[in-house]
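Re-run with default settings, no changes from the original entry. Doing this only to confirm the output is reproducible before filing.
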Amino acid sequence: MRRLKPAARGALGVLTMLTFATLFWIAAFFLTAWAYRHIAWSPPPLVRQLVTSLVGLVLMSCPMIVFGRLYNWPREQAMVQSVLTVIGRIAQGDFSARVDVRIPDRDHPMSRFVHRINDMAVELDRMERLRQEFISNVSHEIQSPLTSIGGFAKALRDHDPDPEDRRRYLDIIVTETDRLSRLSDNLLKLTALEGEQPPLEARRYRLDRQVRRIILAAEPLWSGRGLRMDADLEPAAVVADEGLMDQVWTNLLHNAVKFTPPGGGITVRLVRRAALVQVEVADTGIGISPDDQRRIFERFFKADPARGRDAGGSGLGLALAKRIVDLHGGDITARSTPGRGSCFTVSLPAAEGGAAEPTAAVPAGRADPEVSGGAGGAGADEPRQPNPSGP
């Protein structure tokens, strides 16, 4: 019986349609017959049949169109009102709003319109969360040195410390002030680089010489910590903004120095691979956990926040480095094993024609060729001497 019910309903529907069609065609027959008598015209049978069929179709279609519009009008009105309500909520800053209208036909214009609105709301919601996280991180990074500066300034004002303590307090204030200055400078750089027209002054230059210069400039840092340095740099040229690329190599090298224990080693390699130039900065440092590796290029992210504060970083260095590399059409990646070290690899398009002349060797005593390992900690910026302890 259950199988017969749908069949019976289908048969009843077909019978109803045939009945209505028959009534409309009968009405069309009498209507055309009246029209022929009224205009005193007797057309041939074929013409009479065609005219009667056409009138019958018109008579049958008109009620169906009107009925369909009346049936769908409330549904369409509700759909449009739902879309307008969601758009209003988005305009007021509620990016969690979504249009909950289901249209079976995904190719229907209204369905595509609804999907576009929901996609826009999702993206705006993501951007709003990033904005709130950015404000929270900036506030935290500013508040930490301000608290330190205020505490030591009050100690100097309210007490009469001996000269040694006074000097230590002032050193801490200067260090934290420099930290705020660097934070502000990096924020301004990152904002400028993320603008529609980032300031780039690209020219052709020898990348191996630039990397060697950065290594030698940082020698007091890595030699002062008892780190071994190995530099293996093939001659290579790129077309890039040399000043911005200085920031990239400085950040990567200083990160490796900060997060490598004394007695460890750092390796810097530059190789030419087809149309690319690759620079690897590796160390035998503390490494980065797999979960943190997915976020190390985010602004203000620190794989170890406590260690990052002790080292003086703000978590902008790698975000800034990635943005600079991206602007040059390159790529920066990281791989790491916790406790064994990490390796940061920067790939840049090589300049046509390669290096113009051979590179000079690293001065004797500036590098130790016995280094192995992979690159240092994550999310830090420029090198700083450890902060003096508080009072």
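The chain has a mean pLDDT of 78. Strands lie at 203-206, 228-233, 237-240, 265-273, 276-283, 331-337, 341-349.
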